[in-house]
Amino acid sequence: MRGEATVLHADLDAFYASVEQRDDPALRGRPVIVGGGVVVAASYEAKARGVRTAMGVQRARALCPDAVIVPPRMEAYSAASRAVFEVFHDTTPSVEGISIDEAFLEVGGLRRIAGAPVEIATRLRERVRGDVGLPISVGVARTKFLAKVASAASKPDGLLVVEPEGEEAFLHPLPVERLWGVGAVTAEKLHARGIYTVGQLAEIEAATAEQWLGRAAGAQLHALARLRDPRPVETTRRHGSIGSQRALGNRPHSGGELELIVTQIVDGLGKRLRDRGSSCATVVLRLRYGDFTKATRSRTLPAPTDHTETLLTVAHSLLAAADRDIAERGITLIGVSLSHVTRAGTVQGELSLDWNEGARTDARLDVALDAVRDRFGSSAVTRAALIGRDPGLSAPRLPEHE
Predict the structure, then answer these.
(1) So what family is this one in (predicted)?
(2) The predicted structure's pLDDT at residue 354
C-alpha cells in the first residue's frame, strides 16, 4: 500500500515575467524579458523563441527581436510572493516554502473539511489567479519529488495528479535529467553507460549506480528512480542561510565589475538579515567558471554580525583570493550566501577590541538606510559606485517564507 497522493507542489509560471505582464496589460501575450545585461527571467512567449535564463540580452534580442525588455522590480516580486504564500497558508497549515515562487503543501488531513487533494489544488490555482492575478502550476503526488516533477510536466498554468498506481507509468519514461541532482555531468556519465530514462536507471542495482556516480549520489538517484522519497513536508523548518546569485553571461568581466556586483548582492542580503532580526557568522562566495565548473570560498567571522560593511569586507576579500582563477578560466555566475544565520538574542554579544565610534556609526547608518528603502523602495538610496548599474539580480537562493 503506497498511500494517497496528498502532497502538492505549487510553482508560479515564469514568475517575474508574469508579474510584469499582470501589472502592464500592454505586455500580455507578448514576449517579455526581465533583465539588464543578462536575462533574469523570460515569459513563455519569449521562451518559445529560444530565450533562456542567464542568456546574454544581446543573444536574446537576436533570437527574439520583438521582445520587450524590462528591468527587474524586486519589491513587486516580493509583494506578489507574499500574497501567493498567504493563499498557501489559507489552504493548509502544512506549507514548506522552497523559493520565492514555489512551495510544497501537505493536504492529507483536509479531506473531510476541504475535499480531495485534486479539489484543493484546483481551488488553490483559482485563488492565486483570482486574488493575485498570476498563473500557477500544481503537481499532486504521494511524494515531494513526484509532485515537483508533476508540476513541471503540467506547465504552463496546469494541474497534474499522479496517483500511486500510475507512478511508474508517469516517471519511468522521463529522461534521467528530470531527477533531482542530475545535471550535465551526471547525465553524461549515465548516457555513456546507456542510461537515458528514469526507468533504465531503476532497472540497475543500487550498488551499480553507486559505483558509477559515487555512493551518496548514486544511492539517492537510484532511490528516486524506484519511487522512494520519504521526506515529509517540513512546516517548521528554518533555513540556516540566505543568499542571492547573478548570472553573468559569457563575456569577460573586470575585477572592478565583479566587485560592484558583489557589493550589490551583499547590500541586499545585509538588509534581509536585519529585516529578519538575524545575524550571520559565515560569508560564502559561490562561483561558476567559464568551463562550468563550480567553486566556493568561505570565511567565518569571530562573532555573528548583520553589519553590511563587515560582510562586504569579507566578501571582497574572498573575491580577491579567487582573482587568478577567474582571470584564467572566466566566470559565468557569481553568488554570495550568508550562513550560520541566528536570531538576534540567541548569540552572546562580543565586545570587539576595535569597537569604536566608527563601528557604531556603521550600525546606525545601516538602520537609517533600511528605513529609507522600506519607505521609498530599494532604489531610493544606493552607493555612488552602483548608480546606473544593472540591478538585475536573480531570485533569492533561499525563501523568505519560513
Answers:
(1) Belongs to the DNA polymerase type-Y family.
(2) 41
**Long-range CB contacts (< 8 A, 24+ apart) of 290-298?**
290/250, 290/329, 290/330, 290/331, 290/332, 291/329, 291/330, 292/184, 292/332, 293/329, 295/322, 295/325, 297/321, 297/322, 298/339
33 conformational bin, left if phi > 0, alpha if psi -120 to 50, beta if neither: beta
Q: Which residues pair with 221 in a beta bridge?
A: none
Question: For residue 13, which phi and psi values (nearest 5 degrees)?
Answer: -85, 125
**pLDDT per position as a tens digit, 194-243:** 999 999 999 999 999 999 999 888 999 999 999 999 889 987 555 577 88
The three-state secondary structure class of 354 is coil
CA distances from 202 to 147, 153, 178, 227 (A): 19, 20, 13, 9
Which sign does the torsion angle of CA 365, 368, 374, 378 carry? negative
> Is 66 labelled a binding residue?
no
Which residues are identified as catalytic?
102
- Check whether 11 is labelled as a binding-site residue: yes
User: What residues contact 79, with CB distance under 8 A and at least 6 apart?
Assistant: none
- List the grid coordinates of 75: 519589491
CATH fold group of domain 241-386? Dna Ligase; domain 1 (3.30.1490)
pLDDT tens-place string over residues 244-289: 888 887 788 888 899 999 999 999 899 888 887 888 888 999 998 8
Q: Distance between the two ends of the chain, CA-based, in angstroms?
A: 33
pTM above 0.90, yes or no: no
The phi and psi torsions of 321 (rounded to 5 degrees) equal: -65, -25
The domain segmentation of the chain, as residue ranges, is 1-165, 172-225, 241-386
Give the integer Cα–Cα distance in Å for 143 and 6.
8
Sign of CA dihedral 220, 339, 393, 401: positive
**CATH code for the domain defined by 1-165:** 3.30.70.270
